[in-house]
Amino acid sequence: MNQRKRYSATQKVEILREHLENQVAISDLARRYGVHPNILYKWKKQLFEGAVESFGTKHQKHVQGQSVRMSQLEEKLKEKDSLIAEIMADNIRLKKKYNGEI
Fold it and tell me: What ranges do the domains of the chain cover?
């Protein structure tokens, strides 16, 4: 029975580093490590997709965090405006009642 080899993330990066930095052919790496070439291409794709996320994440989280915070502050401001309008209406009503205008 042929058992599958399991590679850690670190091992996968080391294998791909050989390909990218030393220009070792995928076919040579596949033979050396006993992995199908398609698996190496899949790892390479995952590496680059992860790289885009790692470079963009910090900025995106910052912008997203600011957007969420801004929405929270806008909502809080609306609540305060509503409360102020209600208090002012009560104040005007009480002034009219006190002055006998009602």
Answer: 9-98
